[in-house]
Amino acid sequence: MNAPEMVQLDEITDLRRRVLRADDPAAPVIVAEDAIPGCFHLGLRNGQDVIGAVSAFPCPSPDLDHQNPWQFRFMAIDEAFQGQGLGRVLIEELLRILVDRGVTLLWANGRDTALGFYDAIGFTRVPDSAHASPSTGLPHHRIVMELPHDR
Ligand SMILES: CC(C)(COP(=O)(O)OP(=O)(O)OC[C@H]1O[C@@H](n2cnc3c(N)ncnc32)[C@H](O)[C@@H]1OP(=O)(O)O)[C@@H](O)C(=O)NCCC(=O)NCCS
User: Fold this and answer.
1) Which domain holds residue 74?
2) 151 pLDDT exceeds 60?
3) Which pTM does this prediction carry?
4) Does any domain span residue 63?
5) Domain-embedded: residue 104
6) pLDDT value at position 51?
7) Could you tell which of 117, 138, 142 is best to mutate to test the pocket of ligand 1, judged by most ligand atoms within 8 Å of the CB?
8) CATH number at residue 76
């Protein structure tokens, strides 16, 4: 397995569709956030295939006023590779990159089914943030992590 690396949007749309949109051919898998200046996509390859990815971009947190807040979306590990520590590898590399860039807060709308994963990484669940995703209708909570910074 390769280390996490920057990947292109067109390399991860299929993964987004399969893992996060039940392989629905009609589901939009390119969204407005992908066009936010600074947005990047971090991926994990098995050979040439991208088998895990997450996308991050600057965005204010609905919960905490912060100096340099970012959001991530579309966190996905190919089903065949889940439960092997790859999600942790990907998020930990994302955190390292964002700390390097002076980001002070990372947040996301986490699927309720994945909240245990985010707990394990060290995110905090935002109290009273339960909501249904406008994209999928699935139950979510917001999760946040304040990042160390020295400026
Ligand atoms: C959720 C997901 C990203 C996790 O990635 P993964 O590679 O399977 O997770 P890892 O193997 O790195 O797990 C890291 C830790 O989280 C825990 N964990 C992983 N998925 C979990 C889940 N769904 N519920 C509870 N805990 C979970 C693991 O037990 C592990 O704990 P440990 O380090 O204490 O042993 C992945 O399973 C996935 O893509 N799921 C489907 C899509 C999805 O829900 N994406 C998130 C949208 S918000």
Assistant:
1) 5-146
2) no
3) 0.97
4) yes
5) yes
6) 98
7) 117
8) 3.40.630.30
Across the chain, mean pLDDT equals: 97
pLDDT at 57 over 60: yes
Residue 119 has pLDDT above 70, yes or no: yes
For residue 112, the tally of other CB atoms under 10 A from its CB is 12
Query: How far is the centre of ligand 1, averaged over its atoms, from the C-alpha of 83 (Å)?
Result: 6
Burial 22-36 (b: 16+ CB within 10 A, else e): eeeeeeebeeebbee
**Angstrom distances, CA of residue 100 to CA of 9, 57, 68, 72, 149:** 22, 15, 12, 16, 9
From the CA of 150, how far away is ligand 1's center (Å)?
Answer: 30
> Looking at the domain assignment, is residue 151 inside a domain?
no
Strand partners, 109: 142
Backbone angles phi, psi at 75, to 5 degrees: -75, 120
Number of domains in the chain: 1
